[in-house]
Each structure stands twice: as C-alpha cells, then as structure tokens.
C-alpha cells in the first residue's frame, strides 16, 4: 500500500505541473484550500476529498501511474500523460508490431513458395 506522504507528493507534483494553485484546485473540486493542503501533505486523507481530486485529475493525467506503489523515475513522464494519450501510444506501438508481423508472414509465405 502506498504511503499517504508519497500520494500527497504526487498530487502536489501534478497540480504544479497543471499550473494551478491549491485554491484553484479547491474551487474546482468543491473542497477547501486547507483540505487540499492536508491531502498534499499526507496529513489526513478523507476518501471524499481524495475522490474529488482524482475525479478532477482523471482526464488530465494517468491515474494508474499516480496510484502505482512503485513508480519509477522513468515513469514520471507517463504520469503526466492522460489515459487517452497513453492509449494512443499503445495503439501506435501495436500498429508497428502488426506491420512487423505482416512483413514476417509475407516472408514466411515467400519461403514456403520457394520450398
């Protein structure tokens, strides 16, 4: 399970990356600025406050990476991608793999025709 301090640090990092202050986040989530501060400090976390913030962030960052217990430094760039952007990257990678498989299949067919 992830420590509250780690989660709070990640939430603060995302907020700063998005260029908003605690009051703006509080207004957008119907929370108070002190509630945002406590959440980011890992002091206390109410499920409703965390869900409100995650709801605000859900289309702006990759929540899967936000909640990953062992986020590596290399994964930070994935944190700032929205889920949609991550899916697009995966789709592009799958298209490349599909093309490579198609090329391999053509080579196999050509080799069979030779034999």
Number of helices: 7
What does the average pLDDT come to? 82
Instruction: Give the count of structural domains.
Output: 2
Give the second-level CATH assignment, the architecture of the largest domain. Orthogonal Bundle
- Any idea of the CATH topology of the largest domain? 434 Repressor (Amino-terminal Domain)
> How many β-strands, per DSSP?
0
Please compute the radius of gyration using only Cα atoms. Answer: 21 Å
- What is the general shape? elongated
In CATH's first tier, which class of the largest domain applies?
Mainly Alpha
Structural class, from helix and strand content? mainly alpha
* CATH evolutionary superfamily of the largest domain: lambda repressor-like DNA-binding domains
Approximate strand percentage: under 5%
Main β sheet profile = none
| Approximate helicity band | over 70%
Q: What is the string of SSEs from the N terminus onward?
A: HHHHHHH
Distance between the termini: 58 Å
What does the model show?
This protein has 115 residues and is mostly helical. It folds into two domains: 1-81, lambda repressor-like DNA-binding domains (434 Repressor (Amino-terminal Domain), Orthogonal Bundle); 82-115. The protein has seven helices and no strands. It has helices at residues 4-18, 22-29, 33-41, 47-57, 63-66, 76-79, 83-114. The N and C termini lie far apart (58 Å).
How are the SSEs placed, and which strands pair?
Elements: H1 4-18, H2 22-29, H3 33-41, H4 47-57, H5 63-66, H6 76-79, H7 83-114
Give the key terms.
434 Repressor (Amino-terminal Domain); 7 helices; 2 domains; single chain; 115 residues; mainly alpha
């Amino acid at each position: 399970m992830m420590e509250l301090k780690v989660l709070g640090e990640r939430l603060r990092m995302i907020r700063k990356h998005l260029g908003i202050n605690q009051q703006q986040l509080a207004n957008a989530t119907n929370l108070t600025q002190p509630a945002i501060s406590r959440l980011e400090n890992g002091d206390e976390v109410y499920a409703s406050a965390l869900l409100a913030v995650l709801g605000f962030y859900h289309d702006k960052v990759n929540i899967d990476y936000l909640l990953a217990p062992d986020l590596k430094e290399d994964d930070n760039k994935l944190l700032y991608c929205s889920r949609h952007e991550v899916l697009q990257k995966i789709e592009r990678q799958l298209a490349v793999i599909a093309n490579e498989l198609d090329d391999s299949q053509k080579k196999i067919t050509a080799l069979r025709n030779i034999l």
